[in-house]
Amino acid sequence: MNKNNISIQLYTTRHFKPYEPILDFFSKTGIRNIELFGLESIDIDHFQNMMSASNISAKSTHVSFEALENSQSIIEKAKKLKIKHVIVPAPPARKNAEFKNTFDMNEEEWTTFGKNLSQHVKKFEDAGLTLGYHNHSYEFMALPSGKLPIECMMEHNEYLKFEIDLGWTVAGGADPKVWIEKYSEKIIACHLKDFFNKEKDMLDHGNQSAVGDGFIDWKALLDSISQTKCELYILEHDDPKDYKEYTKRSLDNLGKL
Fold first, then answer.
1. Rounded CA gap, 200 and 36, in Å?
2. What contacts 194, CB < 8 A, 6 or more positions away?
3. Residues 211-254: pLDDT tens digits?
4. CA–CA separation, 186 vs 209, rounded Å?
5. In 84-110, which positions are buried (b, 16+ CB within 10 angstroms) versus exposed (e)?
6. Are 132 and 85 in contact (CB under 8 A)?
7. Is 208 helix (H, G, I), strand (E, B) or coil?
8. Among 30, 168, 217, 250, which is most buried by a count of CB atoms within 10 Å?
9. Res 5 pLDDT > 90
10. If we measure between CA atoms, which residue out of 237, 231, 246 comes closest to residue 29?
11. Average pLDDT score, the chain
12. pLDDT tens profile 25-79
């Protein structure tokens, strides 16, 4: 895989700020694109200057579902940074609750969330952008009816796009290739996330490895996802001890595929 086609989610490096040297490091490794997070709250001018100085672009960003209440502001910020894909990475946060509790919803609640998210799609489409969703593991854990949360929320608008996190899909107990095929027309980006050991807790960030150092068969998955409309291949580690080593190892491993 050509490493020039690989991006990285800036969330990976959030504990290593400031971002200026981080972007410089990415640029020196050959990474030309990052995925932002929290677009609703970042200093757009500052990020624009930093990315320009490092010859880095951003083609996608994560925003909270709550931020869509002011969609016009999100659209304006995305356009200023020449971002194309706006991705919601989780349902609305629950007040004073752990992140995992965000996903503790019944089938009706997942369906309602999907409908609410889909209602925003046209605004982004009309602005020349796409609106999509990024999964964690919980969306692939069956509800009592047997239906999966990801199905409940993705079926309401054919133009709602999908950024499939391949690692979290595996952690949810699903076969990513099945879902790559099912949503082949919706997938516009994918997250590359790997784990050292499938027998250990994959929700433990300490079990996350550099991509290619874990047990996931990346050649098979990348061959599968190349048959979709996927535009972005994005590295992500939720809490690396050394983001530089993680990035270099991942790029080296993917470069051998």
1. 30
2. 167, 208, 209, 210, 211, 212, 213, 214, 215, 216, 218
3. 999 999 999 999 999 999 999 999 999 999 999 999 999 999 99
4. 28
5. bbbbbbbbeeeeeeeeeebbebeeeeb
6. yes
7. strand
8. 250
9. no
10. 246
11. 97
12. 999 999 999 999 999 999 999 999 999 999 999 999 999 999 999 999 999 999 9
Number of structural domains (the chain) is: 1
Q: How many CB atoms lie within 10 A of CB 214?
A: 20
- Tell me whether residue 131 is exposed, middle or buried, using C-beta atoms within 10 angstroms of its C-beta: 0 to 12, 13 to 18, 19 or more: buried
Tokens of 65: 């579902």
DSSP per-residue string spanning 166-188: HHHHHHTT--HHHHHHHTTTTEE
Six-digit token string for 164: 């499939």
**Could you please report the per-residue DSSP string of 94-153?**
PTT--GGGGG---HHHHHHHHHHHHTTHHHHHHTT-EEEEE--SGGGSPPTTS--HHHHH
Tokens of 196: 């050292």
- How many residues can be counted in the chain? 257
Cα–Cα distance, 18 to 59 (Å, whole number): 21
Domain extent, residue 227, equals: 3-255
Please name the residue that has the structure tokens 């001018």: 45
Mean pLDDT of 132-155: 97
